[in-house]
Amino acid sequence: MITNEHIQEFLAQAHRVGDARLTICSSGNLSWRIGEEALVSGTGSWVPSLQAEKVSICNIATGEVKNGVKPSMESGFHLGILRERPDVNVVLHFQSEYATAVACMNKKPTNFNVTAEVPCHVGREIPVIPYYRPGSPELAHAVVEAMKDHNSILLTNHGQVVCGSNFDQVFERAMFFEMACRIIVQSHGDYSVLTPQEIEDLDIYVLGKKTK
């Protein structure tokens, strides 16, 4: 059962995202799995100053709205990811400064592994989704498909999506995603990336696992 404590935690996490300038004004949206339902920031809401009356409660399986609050236009991919990924509890769509600049580049990076934090936390590969109209079924389908086996993606001329098991993991992914893009932009394209062997060493010696 969703309680007031759940709502207050969701608001606090939304405000943290805003305080970090991962979203501004009405950009971006956030969702959180609680049992068979999800809290989703409401359509037109401002994530940095989200209020309880703008939080939608949706059934994950059916998309049915349980409290009369219309969810974000991007709820299609939020709920789709939660349906496809039982390991995921939080989904964040954000539009931070440098990562969104990269999303609008004609020649986008093919490798974001500029520091160890990227393969360790953001993902060794970051799919780039073509532009689809925000809120469209085409965008929702493309995002859900890409997120079946990735935790971070870039949306052309739009923004970014990250997912994870909890709020801290998602926040960390988003922040390191933005950090990598800041390095890429501020280096004016003159940057190096980790080699496959260096990434494999991270898997073994830092994360304690072998590369798939």
Report on this model:
This protein has 212 residues and is an alpha+beta fold. It has seven helices and seven strands. The chain has helices at residues 4-19, 75-84, 97-103, 117-122, 137-147, 167-186, 196-205, and strands spanning 29-34, 37-41, 55-59, 90-94, 128-129, 152-155, 159-164. The protein has a single domain, classed as L-fuculose-1-phosphate Aldolase (3-Layer(aba) Sandwich), CATH 3.40.225. A hairpin with a 3-residue loop joins strand 6 and strand 7. A seven-stranded mixed β-sheet has the order 3-2-1-4-7-6-5, sandwiched between helices. Helix 2 runs parallel beside helix 5 (137-147) and helix 3 crosses helix 6 (167-186). The mean pLDDT is 96. Residues 8-185 form the Class II aldolase/adducin N-terminal domain. This is Class II Aldolase and Adducin domain protein. Pfam families: Aldolase_II.
How is this fold's topology laid out?
Elements (H helix, E strand, L loop, with lengths): L3 H16 L9 E6 L2 E5 L13 E5 L15 H10 L5 E5 L2 H7 L13 H6 L5 E2 L7 H11 L4 E4 L3 E6 L2 H20 L9 H10 L7
Parallel strand pairs: 5-6
Antiparallel strand pairs: 1-2, 1-4, 2-3, 4-7, 6-7
Helix pairs in contact: 2-5, 3-6
Short précis:
This protein has 212 residues and is an alpha+beta fold. It has helices spanning 4-19, 75-84, 97-103, 117-122, 137-147, 167-186, 196-205, and strands at residues 29-34, 37-41, 55-59, 90-94, 128-129, 152-155, 159-164.
